[in-house]
Design a protein that fits this description.
Number of strands: 4
Strand content: 15-25%
Distance between the termini: 14 Å
Shape: elongated
Number of helices: 3
Mean pLDDT: 88
CATH class of the largest domain: Alpha Beta
CATH architecture of the largest domain: 2-Layer Sandwich
CATH topology of the largest domain: Double Stranded RNA Binding Domain
Structural class: alpha+beta
Order of helices and strands: EEEHEHH
Strand order of the largest sheet: 3-2-1-4
Low-confidence stretches: none
Radius of gyration: 19 Å
Length: about 120
Amino acid sequence: MLFVYPAIFHKENSDYWVEFPDLPGCHTYGSDIKEAIESSKDALSGYLLTLLENGMEIPAASEISTLHTDDGFTTLIYCDLDQYKNTKAVKKTLSIPKWLNDRATSMGINFSQVLQEALIAKTMK
């Protein structure tokens, strides 16, 4: 699951601290810009993963053009939660009509992937 949020980078001396305006309390820092970007990806991932694991709603990301700062710059930060979360597979048994099974099998459809995508779409509403 890929997420993209705007982040505001503030420079203090040679360090940077980063805030995510859409995610209250989600802050991080770095001793240089590279470290600040990397730590912002980790902070964003951890914040969103915690929301998901606790069944909380994920806030919508603001349009970057609506954000302004006088003491820094705004950029987009992305994270892929699949690399952070527990990806251990759980076996599920389900039933579908035979005709649908035959058609999907003949088309080479990956049943597990389709079910995962559908469940993610349903739970992200």
